[in-house]
Amino acid sequence: MNLDQYLPVLLFILVGIAVGIIPQVIGYVLGPNRPDPAKNSPYECGFEAFDDARMKFDVRYYLMAILFILFDLEIAFLVPWAVALKDVGVVGFWEVMIFLVILILGFVYMWKKGALDWE
Predict the structure, then answer these.
(1) Is the dihedral of CA 70, 72, 75, 77 positive or negative?
(2) Which CA distances in Å does 98 have to 9, 13, 54, 91?
(3) Residue 10 in 3-state DSSP?
(4) I want to staple 110 with a disulfide (CB 3.0 to 4.6 A). Which of 54, 61, 76, 115 is the partner?
(5) What pLDDT does 22 receive?
(6) Distance spanning both ends of the chain, measured CA to CA
(7) How many CA atoms lie within 13 A of 47 on its CB side?
(8) Which residues pair with 44 in a beta bridge?
(9) CA-CA distance, 117 to 119, in Å (whole number)?
């Protein structure tokens, strides 16, 4: 078994660990450490916490987050398609147009249902 093949992998792992740890150690050693009550206080939107941290959020918050992720990922599919537009040809173009129509129909449906309203 020849271990010379694993040397680049070992070096890659060691460099990755060093790049992740060394800046943190340098910041800890060289950085100022002057705590005061304002730095040690909990931060929540610029004012003191007024409720338990385990309070329930409104379902609309999660719905909005899921919708954002959904549309963000669907738009992310368009980037590789735009790069390879010459390679996919007319068939690939129309397939993406069908995809966009379905995406727009879903968006209009959610809009009409009031899923995007934040009352």
Answers:
(1) negative
(2) 44, 44, 43, 11
(3) helix
(4) 115
(5) 97
(6) 66
(7) 2
(8) 47
(9) 6
Answer yes or no: are the C-beta atoms of 14 and 20 closer than 8 Å.
no
Measured over the CA atoms of residue 39, residue 40, residue 42 and residue 48, the dihedral's sign is: negative
**Residue 64: which of 17, 117, 22 has the closest Cα?**
117
Q: What are phi and psi of 47, to 5 degrees?
A: -140, 165
Q: What is the per-residue pLDDT across 49-76, written as a single tens digit (0 to 9) for each?
A: 666 667 776 777 787 788 888 888 888 8
Could you tell me which residues come within 8 angstroms of residue 81 by beta carbon, excluding any fewer than 6 positions away?
88, 92, 96
**pTM, 2 dp:** 0.47
Tokens of 62: 């999660």
Are residues 103 and 74 in contact, defined by beta-carbon separation less than 8 angstroms? yes
22, 26, 37, 38, 39 from 32: Cα distances, Å: 17, 11, 16, 16, 13
